[in-house]
Amino acid sequence: MSEGANKPMTSDALAGRGVRHRVVVVGGGFGGLHAVRRLRHAPVEITLVDRHNFHLFQPLVYQLATGGLSPGEIAVPLRHVFQRDRNVRVVLGEVTGFDLAGRRVLYAPVIGSSADVRALEYDSLIVAAGSTYSYFGREDWRPVAPNVKGLEDAIEVRRRLLGAFEAAEEETDPALRAAWLTFVVVGAGPTGVELAGQIGELARDTLRRDFRAVDPGEARILLIDLVNRVLPQFPPRLSRRAVAGLAELGVTPLLGRRVVSIDDEAVMVATAAGETERVPARTVIWAAGVQASALGAALDVGVDRAGRVAVGPDLTLPGHPEVLAIGDMAAVHDAAGAPVPLPAVAPLAMQQGRHAAQLIGDRLDGRQTPPFRYRDKGSLATIGRQRAVVEIKRVQLSGTIAWVTWLFVHLYYLIGLQNRMLVLIRWTIGFLTRGRGTRLILSQEPSTDQAQADSPREAGAR
User: Fold this and answer.
1) N or C: which end of the chain has fewer CB within 10 A?
2) Neighbour-count burial of 262, counting CB atoms closer than 10 A to its CB (0-12 exposed, 13-18 middle, 19+ buried)
3) Given pLDDT bands bounded at 50, 70 and 90, which one contains residue 448?
């Protein structure tokens, strides 16, 4: 266990002060949520602070982006999750910094005056702020190549995908129409593969009878990455199966290629030999690279190239055993100080959240906690309808049985019985009809009519 000048207090010491142990958890993602759920029956006061009022089931966000699911089916309000836990308080705030010496978390309310900086005092702190997509220093690409990290991002991607087919329907120039019907996904990991496959199904199944002047089945879907095979974290055999499934959906992997530039009209890619190619495309989606949350740097203990905070075997910060960093923003090191390679996946964040909660509980009871150990439960990726690849304990599955396994696992981990039932119903209807129920194109700004209708004057008239 990490040692430091600020040694955490035991339950007996706190009882002598007449207070309960105060735990602040930053982030309502997988790590933070599972930490709070494990701690909610302990003799502690918990404050969960997040800039969103909901927990998002990140593995299914791409289905929102392609019209398969709606926001309310993959997100659940945090207050609803903990409504029966009287020792859990939810704060809707943007964390702006940390005062480690004073044991305070600084934040600004999301709704109200952003200049009103407030503080949350803690005895133990769990920072689970997650990560964002990295554009490898090219932030100018972010507006023209959105990602699917959050709800707002996914809705924007859906607007662009569906809008591209609408634009192609009205375009008379063959070259411009082809550009509107060309979709580029950058990144051949699970998210990129799943996105590309869903776009293929959207074009060839869902929209095939919706248009008159254009055939959506003519859409060209490109999956670009510098790696030499899709799903590089999977065994080669499953990568080949994934490529075969993508080909059936009209997806063409362009591997061993580096993106050189992206603009509103095209993507420039370069091969290993240095040759460049311009790909006219009006819709580009980013699914490559991960960068830890900027809150890692706010802890002021140093970060690595990916923005991750170095933590010990028990997930605590060196010199601050009362502070734990978990999930995508933490780089775990062993007792000798060597980095421990761990995947940036949801199961890791869940396990680390539970470990952080156990460590706090053990400290209050005066017990020792063993170092964190990740238990790899396997890898899953879906390509499309009855197409998926799964590796669980060296057992490799593909096709329908892998697809059913993928469905079951994601339903199991989805938060909330209502959401599980809604997603199951949505998937069942989609499977039987080959349709998608949320193909809505939502503008980024409210319309003039809507803004007028929402004014106090109009509201009073109603």
Assistant:
1) C
2) buried
3) low
CA-wise closest residue to 288 among 142, 174, 393: 142
8-state DSSP, 141 = G
CA 295/CA 325 separation, integer angstroms:
10
- Is residue 90 within 8 A of residue 78, CB to CB? The reply is yes
Of the candidate ranges 48-57, 106-115, 383-392, the one whose mean pLDDT is the lowest: 106-115
Report yes or no: 197 and 384 within 8 Å, Cβ to Cβ.
yes
Question: What pLDDT shows up at residue 276?
Answer: 95
pLDDT number for residue 437: 82
Higher pLDDT, 72 or 113: 72
Q: How many residues does the chain have?
A: 462
Q: Is residue 222 a contact partner of residue 281, using CB atoms and an 8 Å limit?
A: yes
pLDDT for 10 beyond 90:
no
Kind and range of the H or E element at 402? Answer: helix 400-413
Tokens of 93: 């705030």
Catalytic amino acids? Answer: 194
Give the integer Cα–Cα distance in Å for 357 and 124.
10
Rounded to 10 deg, the angle between the 30-39 and 346-364 helix axes is 30
For residue 10, what is the DSSP state?
P
445/78 Cα distance (integer angstroms): 26
∠ CA 62-67-73, rounded to 5°? 75
pLDDT, tens digit (0-9, with 9 covering 90-100), for 366-412: 999 999 999 999 999 999 999 999 999 889 999 999 999 999 999 99
Q: Which two tokens stand for residue 103?
A: 């044991």
Give 446's contacts (C-beta < 8 A, 6+ positions apart): 454
Residues 6+ apart with CB under 8 A from 59: 346, 410, 413
**pLDDT > 90? residue 79:** yes
Give the per-residue pLDDT at 455.
Answer: 43
